[in-house]
Amino acid sequence: MSKKLDPRVRRTRQLLRDALVELIDEQGYEKITVQDITQRATLNRATFYLHYRDKLDLLYQSSAEILQELVSSIQPAVREKKEVDLLPNYDQPHETFMHLFEQIALNSKLYKVYLTEQTIPYFAAGLKDIIIEFVANGIALMEPNDQKLTVPRDMAVRFYAAAFLEVIIWWLEHDMPYTPKFMATQLMHITIKGPYMDNPFQQ
Question: Residues in domain HTH tetR-type (predicted)?
């Protein structure tokens, strides 16, 4: 949510967003009403309509806010790096990987409900686009020259983006059994070296 919003407005929107997520988890989106949302948020309907036209508007706006928060958390770390050195120390994952998992952990209930339990296509598609851009930026920083890639750039981006998204979904489905730092470290390791201690394809 925008930092320019009045704290009371932010709190009201947070209450409504949390109520929406809880109710979607319990009942599914189609069954809930504005009255259900306001009752769960302990707010009145007039307050709801000061902020949103209907429950779909709440869903879209709250989803957009969460996704924008994710973008804002990972983009500065990418823009500020002219060169990316990922190889020397796997115990200190690159900050973009850390920011990705930390931000998802901050809103884990929403991500879990919208991605795994009651899939919200609008949200899932938005996150997919963000991950694709995240991966594309990372590959571009590591190797901007297409001639030095072993596969077409678009193919590499889609491959890694799909893998990243599935890892995130797995992490959420299993109630985040590992810390954001551990996840960032392992994802970085797999991205660079694969899952092997030693390359089994080398003699």
Answer: 10-70
Copy the structure tokens of residue 102: 């930390």
Which residues of the chain have a pLDDT value below 70? 1-4, 76-91, 199-203
Q: Where are the domains of the chain?
A: 1-52, 66-193
Fold of 66-193: Tetracycline Repressor; domain 2 (1.10.357)
Nearest to 109 by CA among 95, 98, 123: 123
For the chain, the three-class secondary structure string (H helix, E strand, C coil) is CCCCCCHHHHHHHHHHHHHHHHHHHHHCHHHCCHHHHHHHHCCCHHHHHHHCCCHHHHHHHHHHHHHHHHHHHHHHHHHCCCCCCCCCCCCCCCHHHHHHHHHHHHCHHHHHHHHHHCCCHHHHHHHHHHHHHHHHHHHHHHCCCHHHCCCCHHHHHHHHHHHHHHHHHHHHHCCCCCCHHHHHHHHHHHHHHCCCCCCCCCC
Closest listed residue to residue 37, CA positions, set 15, 57, 53 = 15
Q: What is the CATH number of domain 1-52?
A: 1.10.10.60
